[in-house]
Design a protein that fits this description.
single chain, alpha+beta, four-stranded antiparallel beta sheet, 2 helices, 35% strand
Length: 83
Amino acid sequence: MRLRVEFTTEPFDLDEPPAHALAAREVIQTGGLDAVDVGPFGNTVEGGATAVLAAVDTLLCRTLAAGATRVSLQVNVVGETGR
């Protein structure tokens, strides 16, 4: 199964990325995911279910520890792996 996750972390800072945003970027860029799109107001990652769910777990732990006060997630099934 393939998953796509869209997420944001808050609070926002338009002048400089906050520590929680940098933590999120590091998690998703090193998570072994197939597709990563990092933007100023939202991020999207895609990959196999095991890799995506592991990255989401790490993302939540690290961003909250780094000062995020809210993490919004949307998870979509986008297909089966190996098809």
